[in-house]
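batch_manifest entry 22 of 60
target: F-box domain-containing protein
source organism: Cronartium quercuum f. sp. fusiforme G11
requested by: lab member K.T.
priority: normal
notes from requester: please return tokens only, no post-processing; we will run our own comparison against the previous entry in this batch. if the run fails, retry once and flag.
--- input ---
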Amino acid sequence: MPCLTDLPIEVITEIVLAIAALHPYHSPSSLLSLLLLNRRLYSRLRPDRNPSLYSRLFRSRFDVAALYRRFFNTLEPAQSSEEPTRSRSTAIQLCEAYIDRLQLFKRMRLYAATPPVPEQDPETDLAPYNRAPTISQPHGQPISLLTRDLWLIYLMVMENDEKNWIELIKAGQVVQFLKNFHHNKLVAFASQPGYPPEAPETAIGMRLYYLFVDLTNERQQPNAQIEEARETNLFVLKPYVFGCHVFEVAYAPWSWRRFPHPNTTGLEPIAGPSSIKDGASTDVKLTPLAVKPCTLQYMGQSLHILPPLNSHVALVSFFWGVSCMNELNRVSDLPSVSSSNSSAEEMFSQKMQKILSCKSTAYELDFRRATVCLDPSSSSGLEFDSFKGAFEGTWEGKFSFFDYTSYREMLMGRLQSVYEGRYGDQPQMFKMREVVVRKRDGQSVCFKPGPRPTRVIATHSEKNEELDSSEDETEHLLRMHIPDASMPAEEIEFDPNEEYELQIYGTGHSAWGKCLLKGRVRAWDGLLTLLKNYRADATVSGAAEPLRNACWLYRGYATPDGALIGRWRDTYTPPHIPGYEGTFIMFPR
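--- output ---
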């Protein structure tokens, strides 16, 4: 009778795959039994001898389309024929990733199963992170095990096409994992003196908590535990949302327009987390980066990547939490902080939940920005039209505002005002159109079909640099000419030596009245700066100062689910000084 070890390796592989499929969302313990059956079978099935087997196990459990696009520069194996050498290299990386993710899930389950401590010190944690273990990396700084695990979860979300999400929930118990992280880290940091840190693990943790916990809780479920969790989360988020002088709105100073930045020695002072002690700004930082890139060993590469901005992940979660609390207050006949009616709130919540259905392709631009816009002094960034199409159309959403007296006290160093200050929000509507403009003459253009020549990164003239530094964004947008929508754009060949810009024009209205919209998109990272002018009938002649009291400057980014998020600020305060700011979120109608 033939022995199992005498079967061809292809047949044994199919047997292993069939056995592994019998117990989905679990570690393949039956595979371990096969490995220990005898020495010959062990030698044929061990990962270093048979990476293609574990590569197939990986593809059976996890999504791979985004991995092939982003790391292997090809399509999935089912859609393309890889070269043998390249195919084996890919199999090795997926084999290592398979083992890595099984170990990740094991740590997540252990962390999720450990009851949280009521009064948790944020410097300590539960097993397996209680001894603050670090991971050594061949080409990067050591990274804490918890930070790396959060990165792995976040990357799985950005690569999700259905499988990853289910694996995280069922195999990794990610919901309870994040609840414990929220209590042990985020709540603990919020309970400490001073502002919470701006760190990759806090931003990623807040983002994941929003996706897996916040959005999955039913809005009107009469559950005291859920409502208490929402109140606690709003407490955690307030410093990131309202502390505009601490937590940056953009990956590089929003007033910068040219990249790579021509002068890294003459940086304007920017208040930041490193300069804030107990709520008071005692110093300034001169770094151009809001957050520093992290280095991870991932898919056989040293992946240099920026974490999400703490302010952005917090404000999205905050808008959601406030909307949920508003609806609960309406049901209970209690005062609401929003002027939106119940049907508008319901539609708002449905649009916010759209992020749950986003696939990996929706995260493509986010991933590119996070891996390309690493350093404004050396990175060329994205193309000027990378986000073309992201701002066109009719938008509905909200802008929030913070009590002015409390805001002033906060800037003076009274941190308690962040938690005690009153806030509210109002609905607004935008109607925007995009125009590609040639910068040297302001002519709206469109490009003839065909491949583009390689972009040339020009050395900017001293005249242009002087213009950039002398004219602030509000003044520039006030003077910016509005192209005639009835006139067709000039069709031209793309010239890599020319500078082009994606500009935004439109109208809007809110409880304050009608407004005129003029803005532009920063090519480097897709940052939108939009001037909201309530004196739409006024014209700029001479100094633009008289119009500033009717203008607000919006700065924000397009998100994977098609929303716009960011902050607005007054137009009187110079860019390098903290001004009066609030937040906004908009969704396509």
